[in-house]
Write a structure and sequence with these properties.
Elements lengths: L6 H4 L10 H22 L2 E4 L2 E4 H16 L3 H4 L1 H9 L13 H12 L2 H14 L3 H25 L2 E2 L5 E2 L2 H11 L3 H38 L11 H16 L2 H30 L4 H13 L7 H17 L5 H6 L7 H8 L1 H20 L9 H10 L5 H32 L3 H20 L3 H42 L5 H4 L1
Antiparallel strand pairs: 1-2, 3-4
Helix pairs in contact: 2-21, 3-8, 3-14, 3-21, 5-16, 6-12, 6-17, 6-19, 7-14, 7-17, 7-18, 8-13, 8-14, 8-16, 8-17, 8-21, 9-10, 9-21, 10-19, 10-20, 10-21, 11-19, 11-20, 12-17, 12-19, 17-18, 19-20
Length: about 500
């Protein structure tokens, strides 16, 4: 996330626009007690080796490790096949669904690639040291298995509407799948719990937080406190809301058409600059990897040495790729396919790109440029690392933040809409009402300092994992049957590449 993650975990401040300070304080004071209680419960942490370890991270990473073993390290065995599927080698346009494998992957990635990749990684390194990078990569690799199981289930239990549109995600596989297992009441409760949390997370962490931090980054690169934009967050939010509204009014197909262009562009832009910086500091490569490996296993060091590095790395990966949260399964459910396993395989690439590639590139830039010990943290540390090489790179970083925030809002508008529709019906009136509310919240997020609101909404995002992973454990055997059936058909030649059938 966010992408989206707890504002405190990111270390990013929320600066209010002066004109709204009174309203801001009123909202904060009213919501803070409830918000703090919920956030404290969801992000409950225990002290380990001098640093705090959120139990929700253990819930996510532990499940990822179990799924990895249960499915025989599927993320490595099926990686090559995932590339083939994204290329369209096995795509059949006549299958049910609304978007291609590539579009579904791009939409899901747009919801996870964001501020967590830029600012969150810097926080992890400033606390856990360079060694956090190695554990972050490991957790990202494990998370690929979680994405695989939840996205396979998303397609298997999706709902095709009379007009050809698709609704899917944890709401449906929790309610329908668990009912098939004789646990209907549990499934209905978990599906409703997930939906409520998803709507809350979409409006906050997937919307207001993104708009707020995008505006703050624009202010930072245009003069900071002296910026002529200071106090005009509402105008920035209004423009952003109009752009978001223009895209989301067309549904998942419109969102997918935009994200399939934005995501590759912003990923290539960001990773390309990172590669340039690393190449310019190539003489430091031995030293940098020595810092990463040494820090990962050193018994001493900042924030608990090896244990502290492990915790920060696992936390960053879990907060960044959202594997196990269930959000991405909503986007992947709309894919054009009649084989649920295919989208599970495609989704393997999401944590790999988000965490193993993009988060790692951020970490390497910070380590290679030697700015890790300058006392900065968050997006300021990442910006300093980029600016250490070329003075105008922070402006490109600001562009990346804008693109990341915009694409995240697009994806989370869809996630929130599908959860909203599950609770209130698939009617167009209900859908339009949610889209209007979502756009209004863009303006609010850019204009106000909504710390407690954001803390609450981010807690909602990770509360989704409480319901989702319970369902994943129960439905693991169902996915295993799907996987075995699919790969047997692939091996026998019953499923062949499109070109081979022509």
């Amino acid at each position: 996330m966010k992408k989206m993650l707890c504002a405190a975990a990111l270390g990013l401040p929320f600066t209010p626009a002066p004109a709204f300070a009174g309203i801001d304080d009123t909202i904060n004071n009213a919501i803070a007690p409830f918000s703090n209680a919920v956030a404290s419960a969801i992000f409950y942490s225990v002290p380990i080796a001098g640093t705090q370890f959120p139990l929700i991270v253990g819930w996510l990473v532990g499940a990822a490790a179990i799924f990895t073993v249960y499915f025989g390290f599927i993320q490595f065995r099926a990686f090559g096949h995932a590339i083939s599927l994204v290329k369209g080698d096995y795509s059949h346009p006549e299958d049910a669904g609304e978007v291609s494998h590539f579009q579904a992957l791009a939409t899901a990635l747009s919801g996870t690639v964001g501020l967590g990749n830029i600012a969150g990684v810097a926080v992890a390194l400033s606390i856990g040291g360079a060694g956090a990078t190695l554990w972050m990569i490991l957790a990202g690799l494990l998370g690929m298995a979680s994405k695989f199981i939840e996205c396979t289930l998303g397609v298997k239990y999706r709902k095709e509407l009379p007009d050809g549109t698709i609704s899917g995600g944890p709401m449906y596989y929790l309610s329908i799948g668990l009912a098939e297992k004789g646990k209907a009441r549990l499934g209905q409760f978990l599906a409703l719990f997930f939906s409520i949390c998803c709507v809350g997370g979409a409006l906050g962490g997937g919307n207001m937080f993104q708009a707020n931090q995008a505006f703050q980054q624009v202010v930072n690169v245009t003069g900071g406190d002296a910026s002529p934009l200071t106090g005009f967050g509402w105008l920035f939010g209004l423009v952003m809301a109009m752009l978001v509204g223009f895209v989301i009014i067309g549904g998942i197909k419109s969102i997918a058409r935009v994200t399939e262009k934005i995501v590759p562009f912003m990923a290539i832009l960001y990773v390309g600059i990172a590669f340039f910086i690393i190449a310019q500091n190539f003489s430091n490569i031995g030293w940098a990897f020595g810092q990463i490996i040494g820090g990962a296993f050193s018994p001493e060091g900042i924030a608990g040495g090896a244990v502290g590095a492990l915790i920060q790395g696992f936390k960053r990966a879990a907060f960044s790729n959202e594997a196990g949260v269930g959000s991405a399964a909503i986007a992947h459910s709309a894919v054009i396919t009649n084989e649920p396993t295919t989208e599970g395989v495609v989704s393997l690439l999401e944590p790999f790109i988000d965490t193993v590639v993009i988060c790692t590139m951020t970490a390497l830039v910070i380590i290679f440029t030697g700015v890790l010990d300058n006392g900065l943290t968050g997006v300021e540390l990442t910006s300093a690392a980029f600016g250490a090489q070329v003075s105008f790179f922070p402006y490109i970083l600001a562009l990346a933040v804008l693109l990341f925030a915009f694409s995240t809002m697009l994806s989370w508008s869809y996630y929130g809409l599908k959860a909203w529709s599950y609770m209130f019906g698939e009617g167009q009136v209900a859908a339009n009402l949610f889209k209007l509310i979502f756009c209004i919240f863009v303006v609010i997020g850019a204009s106000m300092n909504l710390g407690p609101v954001i803390d609450f909404s981010d807690a909602m995002i990770f509360a989704m994992a409480l319901a989702n992973i319970v369902g994943l454990y129960i439905l693991m055997p169902v996915v295993k049957q799907e996987v075995e059936r699919y790969f047997a058909k692939l091996k026998s030649g019953e499923i062949r590449k499109v070109a081979a059938t022509a």
